[in-house]
Amino acid sequence: MAEKKILIVDFDLKSLESLSELFEKLNVKIIKARDGISAFEKYREEAPDLVILEAMLPKLHGFDLTEKIVQDSRGTVPVIIVTGVYKGHQYRNEALRTLGATDYFEKPYDKEKLVERARKLILDEAEVEEDIPDLPDIPGADAVIKSLAERLKKQPSDKSDKED
Known about the structure:
Rossmann fold, 5-stranded parallel sheet
């Protein structure tokens, strides 16, 4: 299995480091950015498996960045928004339904729930793909496997949906 990557974006250095430390135990490569424009550049260069970002970002707002990543990846790269500013159902609904975010956490957030959600998004996909045998003789088999893995990634976890 190829090394998994998480792009973490936060303008606040302390928050950026805190988020990064949370995911070190997942044994993934952590990529960091402090503004929306450099985050999109790193997303393009590094092709992360997951993006976790603060909604309030300089140079390119986190909601706009979410929309760009979702459009650019055609929804294959999950984006989790973690915010201390945009609180409430209206922001969560906009992020999830309109912008295409995979999940939405408000600060202060439950660290264990965030890590578990991220783990499911990046590691369970690999487990699903490993459980399905290679089907080289069947045309389109790879596309079907990828499609199934994407559907599983997009299913919201019961725990994070009930945080509201």
